[in-house]
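Batch manifest line 370
LIGAND: succinic acid
JOB: complex structure
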Amino acid sequence: MAKMAASMVEHGEDAFRKLFKFYKRRNPPPDFSDVIDFSKGLWSDKVVSAKLDAAAVSDVEARRVGLRPVRDWKAFGLQGYPGFIFISNPFLLGSQPFWVRQCLKSYPQKPNVCNLDMHMAPADTEDIWGKSADALRLPPSGKREPKTLLERLRWVTLGYHYNWNTKTYSANHYTPFPSELHALSCHIAAVCGFPGFDAEAGILNYYRSDSSLGIHVDESELDHTRPLLSFSFGQSAIFLLGGTQREDPATAMYMHSGDVMVMSGPSRLLYHAVPRIVPAPRENPCRPALETHTQEESALVGPVSEEDRTVCSRYMESSRVNVTIRQVLGPGQSFPETLPPRNWTDASRTEEYHDGSSDGESGGQKRRKT
Ligand code: SIN
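JOB STATUS: finished
ARTIFACT:
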């Protein structure tokens, strides 16, 4: 099959799976001409403008978390997907390196949880950044070096830590949610019409150039009236957005560094997947910026040292990091039962999360390979 247009995909049991396989295929490479690119504006007749509540976040509040004034954001919707909002890189020039550094240096730290904890001793996963930075700072030697811990990182969980075995969150496995990421998420949600949003859980996915994420729905949160937010950094991804049924056809779109996606309302529980990572069209976001925003005392986003920037830049040359933020409980809601503390994961189950299969088939649940 030389070309399969996203618009040509018919309904049927295999529609989404076929599209997943099409975009994942290496040889011959797929035709990407039907992939929607929101960075090009109203480029396709499926793309519509989305209305934001610019008054919900002041310019000062936006700047504190590294965002441009809301009136300057470019937000889009997709015909046939009510509640889906795509914000094309609303970050201030020079602020992405801060968020990338948080994802690589700060969020993998304890007490947060990561895939490496599943088969390594706690002392060995305590300082993932420290144990990886020197090797990443060196220029590639040409010969195959063992992978650093950072390069072996596949996921990190924040706040209410997702239990990959039971596919649930619980009251007794919670650690404090990072305050700056909380503020960023609440501002994005407020602008999209969800002023009371509370960022309670986060899942960071670390993709290498050959990674993919299988077809799934994020439905473990107890309150589905709250949106799912997604932030992407580094290399680009082909993102597939399907329907409420697994067999519904999907639409392919690029997610570039800095892009923000909001799945809310009727789009909150749609099937989606990432079949492929593709090179970023733009400059690596961790390279020194020509223009940086002024740092104010109240800023939650701070400068990144040259040393840290080098490590982030080297890592991001071949990687993508995606952060999804969820509100787990609605107002007044609580978990159905408090389970006694337990060994809440087992390695074999969590290693299934990232999709390594050729067809993205995961029965509506996430699968990952480490
Ligand atoms: C993504 O990486 O863009 C999607 C992550 C997810 O669905 O959890």
